[in-house]
Amino acid sequence: MEGIRMKTKKTLVTAILCATILLTAGCGGQASTTKSTGSAAASSKATSAATSTASNTAADAVDGVSLTNPIKVDKEAKTITVLCSINGQYLTQPTRHASIFKDGGFGTKSIFTAYGKPLDFYDALIEIGAKEGGNMTADNKETTHVEGDPIKCEVTWNGAGKYYDFNEVIIDSNKKPIEMRFGGNRKASEAKNTGCLSCLDSCPVGIISNTTYTYGAVETRGEVGFTGNAEILPDDGTYVAVRYTLMK
């Protein structure tokens, strides 16, 4: 009888020890799982932060141009790309300016606020082989159409999926085509410091301008008004890349 009791007691002790071992192993597994989950969360958070940082860094980078590199020249393709941003004011109000350098005297008066300087833009056009018209002066501006090599102007932005021609994103109230020419005007641009890269009527200061109208068509004679096409262009302040292509 005593032997049976001892055997039963040993069996009970063995069972308790086994249960203790199993419980301990279970806690260890749970701790391991918790630790793993914590690491995954930290890793996910780090990845998210990195993605967010990359996204913020890339906000001003559009098709190879950025705030640190606002003008890109491709001599082989005969293109110049300039970083700009949308000036939402001119999605509803008319202007005679397509793009002006942000620190120029007229820096707030264009549909596209440029981060590249007009003299750098002029030099880039010469670099890709463009020939200036050189026919505009302060005296003849209201009766003369700008000459020079034709320049195709297009714009894109992150998510646009394509380049849009100026004739798609700038509305001429008369529905006439915008035809940009390389007028030149380097000396006048430097002297006046308006910052004008591209004007929407023939201009004696802007590096390129629209030969369709003579100077004063917008502001003096009220023959036409130009606004950005709000149905296509992105919101105010959005960074865009404006690409200029020599057409010859």
TrEMBL record:
Signal peptide: 1-25
PROSITE patterns: 4FE4S_FER_2 (PS51379), PROKAR_LIPOPROTEIN (PS51257)
Bilayer-crossing regions: none
Keyword hit for rRNA processing: no
4Fe-4S ferredoxin-type domain residues: 184-213
Highest taxon of the lineage: Bacteria
Name of this chain's protein: 4Fe-4S ferredoxin-type domain-containing protein
Naturally occurring in which organism (per UniProt): Catonella morbi ATCC 51271
